[in-house]
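pinging the channel bc i need a second pair of eyes. not urgent but kinda urgent?? the chain im working w is below, pasted from the shared doc
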Amino acid sequence: MRPYLRVANVLEDTLDLRDVKHMNFTPEEFETFSLRPGDVLLNEGQSPDLLGRPAMYRGEIEDCCFQKTLLRFRPHDGILPEFALLVFRHYMRSGRFRREARITTNIAHLTQVRFVVMEFPVPPTREQSEIVRLVCAYEGEMIEQFAAIARAPAEALRQSILKAAFEGRLVAQDAGDEPAEPLRARLNADEEARLPSRRRGRSAMQAEAAS
């Protein structure tokens, strides 16, 4: 009995190992379906938008195998596993896998025959490494920003948005538009100027009513 990964375990850029099944593998089958750290697994059958959803096996489970419903990409020399993972994530998100798919009853299938002939970029390994570094840095910044938004109380977030709106930082400003702060000051001044006349009007009406 050996552990094996299936479609349910392979999410985008991560393996869900909370429910790993086991079954018998003969020595020959183990040789064929065993995983090595750096192997990238892709969903062979999935909804069209998630077809080819990839994740990397990093040796999390010893002597682990994979099911036939997954495709395994094992990078050769000159291809970084992390770079291959980014390429396949891009292919999933851009619909490249979907264009190669055979779709039946809302389930798309990426056969091995179609997968092995797809184009694959192979820049120098130093360039691959830099691409991976930049993508990881940008994704890390986005995760931090979303986490900060989730932690912010709703009222504080609303006040922050209003402040940004008054300062003209939400959208690009037209050079001909009046800045928000002078506009608000002018409107307040106009309101103050109208108050005395309103008071006089109310006083006259009160005096007429009294007479």
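so The helical segments are 27-33, 81-94, 96-99, 112-116, 125-151, 154-166, 180-210. and DSSP finds seven helices and eleven strands in the chain. — does that match what u expected or am i reading it wrong
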